[in-house]
Amino acid sequence: MVSYTPAHTVPSREQALHALYEAAELEHCLMCTYLYAAFSLKTSVNEGITQEQLEAVTRWKRSILQVAIEEMGHLMSVWNITVALGGAPRLGRSNFPLDPGYLPAGVVVKLAPFNMATLQHFIYLERPADSTEPDGEGFEPERHFVRGANGPRLTPMGINYETVGEFYQTLGNGLRGMVEKHGEAGAMCGNPALQLSKAEVSLPGANKVICLKTALAAFESIITQGEGAQENTENSHYQRFAAIRSEYQALLAADASFKPAFPAATNPVLRRPPRPEGRVWLENEDAIAAVDLANAAYGLMQRLLAYTYAVPAPDPDKCLSLDLGIGLMRALAPLAERAARLPAGPSNPDCHAGVTFITLRDTSPLPPGPSARRFFLERFQQLTEAAERLTATGDPRTIAAASVFKHLAQQAEQGFDLSRPAPSAVASTPAPAAAPAPAAPASTVEDGIEQVEGEKLTLRFEAKRCIHARFCVTGAPKVFLANVQGPWLYPDAMDAERLVDIAHACPSGAIQYKRRDGRPDESAPPVNLAAVREAGPYAFRGDLRLGGKPAGFRATLCRCGASKNKPFCDGSHHDVGFNASGEPPTGTSNEELTARDGPLQIDPQMNGPLRVRGNLEIISGTGRMVARVTSAYLCRCGHSQNKPFCDGSHAKVGFTADGA
């Protein structure tokens, strides 16, 4: 087992933060290399592959993107641990390709298109500690060396490790030593309000680190799910990449000419490189424009994520900057795919371009407050204008990216309040004496539903249905306390009638109630509705029967195909960059319904759509009527070309989901 230095089994806080910064850079780099390979994959039979090959490639892309999303979760875990130790998250990294010594010799990181060598490299990076998997051809280290010092050092230095899993085990051991030396409160001295949690984002790594146990659990989750997992760990990154390799080999055996991806450049760069070895200088103007805009979006995403960690909860800037940062991935993805389909230029006639993932020289968070908000608004406007200019090519991917930029710019314009003082300025203003905190009401949890008895009503919360629409914490902040440990539901802190209105506004049905004052409980609405949310789920309202069982009167059901809590939405549409309009066209035949209410049967079909039976008006996100039906099949794989209706695409893309 490696250690920080031969004489330091317990790292200093400086050494621990240095190691965590490397962990963050490593996760960040892996995520970018996986995305780069995924963006190079072909998406149509018009690109030189058969229908059978396309179905396989589509599965591979979906699997690689999911791995990249999980790497983002690992990165968030590392950031939260960094904050717990009193540090600020490391958002930046070295540009590709990394110079020798920046990581151990055996950890080579560079951007490369999807092919067998690149896939084997991914398998090698994610291999278990006792694996004999070789690295991919062409990924051999430029230099062979062993990092580390021969004696104790005050200056933090990189430590050596054979596998990434071994690295994380070392970090966990060092953290145990710090807690033994300083005590848990002394070691974990950071402000937990700066961390990210499930309240802000639906990622597996979004768990607050408040003690040694939660920190070690985060490290263990990274190892178990990804780098260093045991060879037989089901659904680990290693297993998923190995499964792709098996299918790839079979398709190559059947057709030796099979090329699943475009020949995107290995380590593309936007400027003439002072060190040209191992790099491809992009010269094609269309490719440069697409890559430049993608890089600008990537840089703004880094800025927003850094800002997210600089703003304490529950400041509204925290959630908004996070949503905008993640949303930028939905713009970057089509631009990166566009680049992989364009030639690199005359100096490199045999390869295509590719997004370079240039990182900013400094990604430190902007000072929270009006100046940062103004910066973000200006930058969104610049990116939106640049994207609009690119639409002149008529390329559908560029047009899709422009639409995302426009939507995000509007979201930023509506959310960033330039007149609101910075959090520090607010804190410096003498505050009136706080009223005594109300006694914490007793809560019970049964079948995943938390329940708190109030004087006039019983408040109920079903976490698995929550999509963090935030009507509760913004409309009733004294009833629903965000980002606190312990009791957080206080039903008597607001007038019961107003609280009932807040519950009815919750689109997912996560918030429910039962009256105790003789007033009527919630009843079915007079019109059954299914609203199509922009780049998000279906929001149903009616007397809902899900799989034959009563499901209340409100529910948000997945339509991107990525939720891990199907049929309910869990926010995964943000993570996978789902891009689908909330304003589908009005149908050509929409006769009046003889009745507009009544039971609404929703039956998820095995590996298929949502079958809906009953009187239903399908509406756009703005309330415009799209269709009136008494029976319909609604897409939930995310791939229909006739959204919101199913067109059979689930069979083509290999969509899997349980039935009713």
From TrEMBL:
Low complexity compositional bias, start-end: 421-432
Chain segments carrying region Disordered: 417-442
Residue span(s) of domain Iron-binding zinc finger CDGSH type: 535-579, 619-656
Listed Gene3D superfamilies: 1.20.1260.10, CDGSH iron-sulfur domain, mitoNEET-type
Key words, A-Z: 2Fe-2S, Iron, Iron-sulfur, Metal-binding
Superkingdom field: Bacteria
Protein name: Iron-binding zinc finger CDGSH type domain-containing protein
Organism: Dyella acidisoli
